Amino acid sequence: MLSLNDIHTYYGNIQALKGVSLEVKEGEIISLIGANGAGKTTTLMSISGIAPPRSGDIRFMGESINRVNPNQIVSMGISQVPEGRRIFPYLTVLENLDMGAFLRKDAEKIKSDLDYVFGLFPILEERRNQPGGTLSGGEQQMLAISRALMARPRLLLLDEPSLGLAPLVVKQIFEIIKKINIENGTTIFLVEQNANLALKVAHRGYVMENGRISLADSAENLLANEAVKKAYLGI
Ligand code: ATP
Q1: Which residues line ligand 1 at a C-beta cut-off of 6 Å?
Q2: What is the pLDDT of residues 155-182, one digit of tens each?
Q3: Alpha carbons 151 and 138: distance in angstroms, whole number
Q4: Contact at 8 Å (CB) between 39 and 193?
């Protein structure tokens, strides 16, 4: 579904990605783990067209998307849930969700997708007329995921969904991530510092160090890998 081939991405003179290659197959949950500053967010930003690579190739459903605008990338079926949620604090929950469907014209399906996200997160329906900024951190994460789902993505990019949330809320969010994958068939590419959680939910994983992929394996093997255990699982 998605392949990155030898991606090099820069912020001015700073090189954040130094030849990243990876692939995501349809129906998979893939976790990308790594330390602070390894380049995980930049990988997502490169895929979604916000930080386009200077060289290398990114293909989605067989088409090269390196030079495609972020809005067109959303229309092609890739949605990103950014780190720190980035919901619209002064818009209501419903208006935030409408923004997620901004590029769509299929009104009937938008309505059924709204019912779908309210089914996943009933608390959002209860809070639908409340400004997004008044929600708790966990509810804002639910809103950010739901807003991305309102674009009806085939591939959902999630950046640190566990960041700053209480363990119980994190557990709930990860159960829903799994549900979205299994019940909706949405492919998921997940970036996380909480490696243990991320690998438990994933089919396969990649480890990133200093702008490069240092390990690629099944999630099961990565969880059992001594180096991964020591560096990322605190075991
Ligand atoms: P974290 O888990 O802390 O979010 P990360 O693995 O997602 O880290 P990135 O945010 O992708 O890492 O950062 C990769 C490198 O690029 C870092 O060295 C970072 O300082 C640098 N970087 C990121 N964003 C910018 C920017 N807007 N301008 C300049 N350098 C940046």
Answers
A1: 11, 14, 16, 34, 36-42, 193
A2: 999 999 988 888 888 999 999 999 999 9
A3: 21
A4: no
Whole-angstrom distance, CA of residue 24 vs CA of residue 176: 20
**Ligand 1: which residue has its CA nearest to atom 17?**
37
The strand ranges marked E within the chain are 2-11, 14-24, 29-34, 55-60, 63-64, 78-81, 155-159, 187-192, 204-209, 212-218
Position in ligand 1 atom list of the atom nearest CA 191: 7
Radius of gyration for the alpha carbons in the chain, expressed in angstroms and rounded: 17
Q: Are 157 and 58 in contact (CB under 8 A)?
A: no
DSSP code for 230: I
* pTM, entire model: 0.92
Q: How far is CA 95 from CA 70, 83, 100, 110, in A?
A: 21, 20, 9, 13
Six-digit token pair at 63?
């088409």
Mean pLDDT of successive 10-residue stretches along the chain, which has 235 residues: 97 96 97 93 96 96 93 93 88 93 80 91 94 92 94 95 88 92 94 92 96 96 90 75
